[in-house]
Amino acid sequence: MRKLIVEKDNKKVVNYIKSKFNNVPESAIYKALRQKDIRINDVKVSENVSVEKGDEITIYIKDEILLGQNASLKEDSIVYDDENIVVVNKPKGMLTQGTDNDIGLDKLVCDYFKNPSIRPCHRLDRNTSGLIIFAKDSESEEIILEMIRNHEISKFYRCIVLGTPIPNSKTLKAYLFKDSKNNRVIISDEKKKGYTEIVTKYTVLEKYKDGTSLLEVELVTGKTHQIRAHLAYIGHPIIGDGKYGVNKVNKKFNKDTQELQSYKLRFNLAHGKLSYLQGKTIRLAYYS
Which of 224, 230, 228 is nearest to 239 (CA)? Predict the structure, then answer.
């Protein structure tokens, strides 16, 4: 399932979808319309209607069809690779782990290496791009998972937020409740039943004239939607975040997905056959 926000008026929905997914067969879009697998503003449509600026299109077409039957991992997406692990730059809009109706990065990585045993060791939200560690065997997976649990791998993100947090650098602490039914989280300064402590560090890297700021965020505790919800809670939502952000702000900047990217991993400690990773930092090349 994919969601799109229309940027311009007076375009047929079929043409708009094709402009976003160049490899999707037109017949597949018309089939989805007939089966009412396309919604506009949460209303099912069965005809090739026109869309207007601000409309939300929800598309229930398998990713392998939307992206083309030959969807594959691009070689430049591989940021680091050795005999035990591979670190991949996940594109925005793709699931870490796929479903029956939605191809995931896990399948593309397995296909690329011709190894069905490769597994992701953590996840990113669909619309958050960036670095994900994959283990090539079960032993490496167990070691990486233990390192993550023990906070021995530091994860750093870059994001653009509304306003500028004060002070320029701070360690935020709060409590998070996961509302699984509504697929969102709630933040509180007070510990309550069912709430888990979260720790998020941020540093302001740059202030922009349009009233936004670029932050580096270190995810100390890795909980669902933690960065997005925590920054929104302190009054600085990520631009483009439709769940925790401000709709009119997102429309102003013409962003319909969160401006958030996992750009750096640091192995503070490493164990067993992965001990050679200790002290290693892996980052996206354009942030070197």
Answer: 228
